[in-house]
Design a protein that fits this description.
This protein is mainly β. It contains no helices and 11 strands.
Amino acid sequence: QIRLVESGGGLVQPGGSLELSCAASGLTFGTYTMSWHRQAPGKERELVASINGDGDRTKYANSVKGRFTLSRDNIKHTVLLQMTSLKPEDTAVYYCKAGIPDWGTLYDYWGQGTQVNVSS
């Protein structure tokens, strides 16, 4: 079956850095668009960043542009979200997602999430 396993979350001071990883298995990795989403308490889940299967097109939410960098390794079947200059408002559960846009949500798969806490 499809498995997405996130790691790298934790507690960090404002202005600090974290790296989140997502390891994928059970799918043809290069076929899938990979993305990170986050959800803070009382808020809707939002898209943070996405990268296409070939890794040559990347999109970022305006709130993280210039601070976060998304990359993928199609040999290791992993995606990496490098986060710098973290702010308290970045505090959320971060989820890794795999999907095939041409099929709508039919082939959407989600990881279990990893908690990121940025202290005040």
